[in-house]
Amino acid sequence: MLTPDGASLRHAHDAVACLEGRIVAVGTPEDCARALPADHRRIVVPGASVLPGFIDAHLHVLAAAMAEAGVDCSPRAVSTIPELLDLIARAAAERPPGSWVRAHGYEETMLAERRHPTRSELDAAAPGHPVRLTHRSGHAEVLNSRALALAGIDESVPEPPGAAFGRSLEDGRLDGLLLDMADRVEAAMPPPDSSAVEAAVGAWARERLAEGVTTLVDAGPRNSLSEWATLAGLAADGTLPQRLVVMEGAAHLGELPEQAAGGRARRGEVKVQPHALEGDVVGVEDLAAVVRAAAGAGRRVAVHAPTVESVRAALDAFRAAGDPRGHRIEHAPLLPRDLVEAIAEAGVAVVAQPGLLTEVTARYEQLLSPAERERLHPWRDAINAGVTLAFSSDAPVSRSGPLAASTAASSERPGTLAPGQAIEPFEALAAWTSGAAAVCALDDRGRVEPGRVADLVVVEGPLETDPAACRVLATVVAGEVLYEAPGVGSAGSRD
Question: Are residues 26 and 1 in contact, defined by beta-carbon separation less than 8 angstroms?
């Protein structure tokens, strides 16, 4: 069994006993058996390790599920624009004329052409359908002409504050690329059928169980009562078998109830995503006002901060609003040394996405200078400085599960991306367990200790050297085995 030890993990105990959804004992098999009824189920898996269930501290449930259900245009599926267009054309051929084609996950820096597809290319691939092609980051998308018309966007429409339209270098006309326009596009699209959403979420959630994820933290910046009702309903009916935390959009402060679904759905931090293009300086005074309002209501704040400027602004806002401790900075990919030290001194946590190191290596190499790459995800410095670090997928942005992402952060960190900032595999796994629990204020999980909720993952393989080479054997939520790898069930016996 592995238990947290500072910012890492250590081996301790041989068995754990769970009763009525809680851990009641850890120690030897005999110790644990004495804490349980005589007819308890015993699962023996020699050589395997038991960890706290993985907590994905920042993701987007509905977007991730619908991306998995849509046309996959991610780097794992396509490497050229013609391949991408072929997938869209085939999807369009399977749909009624006039219906939307939703495609997801493209990354222009990892396409052979090193550019975004254009509206004219999407027009040619699906002339009878509106097409929405969403970027891997979720902050950009390409629409074809039919989709632009339905969204009410043409040459006469000015760019809204904080958004931008792509234009052709040849004639200056709209080329279909939109930056930070998701709200307007979604308003023009028919809502997906509820049964289709339920099916997509259920399939996606089961895949996360197979990766050992027992808690999902939805970080939607626009989460209101509407999103809460949808997500809590999916938790209540079992479509989402994991425990769920739903952040509250800053514009909806005070709307969400504290919990639902018998406590399986909880309200999380207040999410702030400044309405500015990535790279722009964020107004500290405005941000501080939001933090003050949230702190005055006894809430912690999570700030979307993908640039050095936005990280500094978030930190300044936390200080200006009062006590910065306990607040969160999301993403923070580039951190100069002085900023790492300032974050540690302020007691602010960082929530990062390690899977991107190996998923979009080419993007980092193309867009960052050598000096910037040296300060990319400096987790070694962060842990040494005492920063509380949590890992997440930001799904659908990253598609790496905790085990694969932990290897990306440690033993397989690319040699071109600050290899000296690699951390140990056990430190990476701790960021998915005790670190994530601390950052999300989930005091009832993240450790294998009596009294904690019985959320566990059983893993076999070389966890200390290469988590990605390991296999999840079982995932336990509230003491119930919700996932078993083939053959594991036969190891269970009645005593």
Answer: yes
Which tens digits make up the pLDDT trace of 203-217? Answer: 999 999 999 999 999
pTM of the entire structure? 0.92
- Residue 491, pLDDT > 80, answer no
The number of beta carbons lying within 10 Å of the beta carbon of residue 383 is 23
In angstroms, the CA 310 to CA 104 distance is: 26
User: What is the token pair recorded at 129?
Assistant: 């359908």
The answer to whether the beta carbons of residues 148 and 123 sit under 8 Å apart is no
Identity (one letter) of the amino acid at 264?
A: R
Whose CA is closest to 300, among 267, 334, 257, 273?
267
Rounded to whole angstroms, the Cα distance separating 92 from 122 reads 11
The CA distance from 59 to 231, in Å, is 13
Cβ contacts of residue 102 below 8 Å, gap of 6+? 66, 70, 71, 132, 134
What is the rounded CA–CA span in Å between residue 304 and residue 311? 8
pLDDT digits (tens, 9 = 90+) for 153-177: 999 999 988 889 999 988 999 999 9
